[in-house]
Known about the structure:
It contains 13 helices and eight strands. It has helices spanning 8-24, 26-32, 37-46, 64-77, 79-88, 91-95, 100-106, 230-234, 237-254, 270-300, 311-339, 349-360, 368-379, and strands at 114-127, 130-140, 148-157, 160-161, 171-177, 182-184, 198-208, 212-213. Keywords: Oxidoreductase. Residues 238-366 form the Acyl-CoA dehydrogenase C-terminal domain.
Amino acid sequence: MNKETLSATTLLAAARSVAPKLAERRSEIDTARRIPDDIVELLRTLGIYRMCFSTEHGGPGLTSLEQLEIVEALSYGDTATGWCAMIGAATGIYAGYLNDKAVAELMPTLDLVTAGLIFPAGRAERVDGGYRLSGRWKFGSAITHADLVIGGAFVLTDGRMETTPAGKPVVRIFFMRRDQVEVFDTWDTMGLRGSGSNDYAVENLFVPEHHSFSFSERKSGTGKLAEPEALARIMPGVPLGTARAALDYVRDLAAGKVIAATGQKWADNYRAQYILGECEMEYIVARSAVVETIDTLWGSLDKERFANLSPDARISTALARTHAFRAARRIIARLCELVGTDSIYKPNPLDIWQRDINTMATHIIAHDAVIQSTGAFLLGGQPEFPFVLGLG
C-alpha cells in the first residue's frame, strides 16, 4: 500500500475490511490480554497508526470525524483492538506539541504506536539539557506492542515543585522509548482485557527537554488537531462501534429466534420488538450527537482556537462523548437482558461486549466529573476535570 496517498476513504475501507478478521479472533484477544503481533503489524501496514498525523507532518490530514469512523470500524470487529488503535494512533496528535527536532528523532516513521498516561503520576527533576524522570503510571493501553511511551509528571527544581503564576503545579508530558520502560503485568481485568493496559515505570531516566511537551504550547503543529482535546474527540468511536456490533448480532439472532415456552417468533413478540427498537433509538441519538458536535466543532476551529470558542461550543463534544459511552452501556445491557442467560457464556460475543463496555465506562471520560465540569464551566465554578474543556 502506498502510504503517501492514503486518504480517509482508503483508511476507512481498510478498517472495515479487517473488522471480520478481528471478530474471528475476539475471544483469542480477550484471553491473551493483548493484541497479537500479527494484528498490530497488519494495522501498521494498512496505515492505521498514522491516521492522526496532519499534513504538516506528512500525514493523511484526516478530520476528527474521519478518525472516529476508522476507530468505530475497528471496534466493530474487536473492542480492544479499536481502543488500542485509538490510543496508539495519538502519536500524530502529540507530534504537534513537539518541535521539529523531536519529531524527527522520535518519529522517523509515521507508523509508530504510542502508549501511556498523560496525567501526572511521576516527578521530573530539572537537570542540564532536560529532566530526570521517575514514576509509575497505570492504564498503559497498547503498551504490550508500543514503540513509544508517554507519561505525565510534576516538574521540580532542586527538589521543589514548580508552580505556575496562578499557583498550580507545573506538569509536562514526557516521551520515552518502549525499551526504556519497565512494564508490570497488572491488567487482569473484567473487560477490555485485550488492551493490555498494564502499569509501567521508570526510575531516574534522563529525558531531553525537547522530548517533553505541554498541551498549552503548540510547536510543530498549528492545525485543528493541535488542540488539547483532539484525542478525546475520537474516543466515542470505540463504544459506538461496539454497540453497533452488538445490535447487529442480536438482530441477526432474532431473525430465527423462537420463545421456547410459547413457540412465538421474536419477530412477533412485543418485548423483543420493543427492546430492539429502544436500543436502536438510543444508538441513533448517541451517534448523531457525537457526529454533529464534532462536525460543528471542526467548522468552528476554522476561525478560532478551541480555548476561544463559546462556552456552549466547548462543552458540546464533551457531553456527547460521555453520553455515547453511557448509551452504549445501556444498549448492551438491554440486549443481554433480551437474549437472557445465553449471553453470559463466553462463546457468545455479548459476554465480551458487556464486560468491555462496563470497563470502558469506568474511564474518566465517562465519569460524572465530565458532566460536573461542563456545568461548572457554564456557571463560572470550578470544573473537576478541566482537561475536557481545554483548560489547564
